[in-house]
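# nightly structure sweep
# worker-07 picked up a monomer target from the shared queue
# config: single-sequence mode, recycle default, output format = structure tokens
# input follows
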Amino acid sequence: MNPQENSELLAALMRQEELLHLLVAAINKPKLGLHSEAGNCKIYCNRQHGGLWYTLNGEPSDVPQTALTGYLKELRFENTERRKKETCKLLITIQADRTYILESGYDTHFSKCILAAIATLTPEQLYSPITLQPTPGTTDENVLFCRVWVESELVMASYNEQTEWREVSKQALAVTKAALEMAF
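# output follows
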């Protein structure tokens, strides 16, 4: 082989290696979302209708999947009316195969688990997909917790009666906002 052929072969092998790395990275990406319908999907996170979470399309419909994986785009609190009473909800926006908006009472264990976990993360960790896994309480059939995973790591974040929820919430909101700002 002459030097020209060697150079061309080396360039082709380097390009092939680059494409192989891209292919492996694409294969190793986690599957995002619950299903592939277009538009937003609002998921209510409580055990009110027998399952762990459900959607409303006229009637409550259990979501059979046990986890949701996607990119955390927003955490926000919203005052709303439910059953003719003013209440505050935590809305968690996850971008996956579509946009999912999870709704939970601001002071539920589900919300507290998510807020405590996100507050311990760095903005850079939110560049990876997170997985939210609703988990039923063992002693009270109305209680719903949430495990939060970043890649394959469970985020361990405990809380108790003395937890300062305003501070935890501020930190979780700040981490989420910083991650979104750094991404653009």
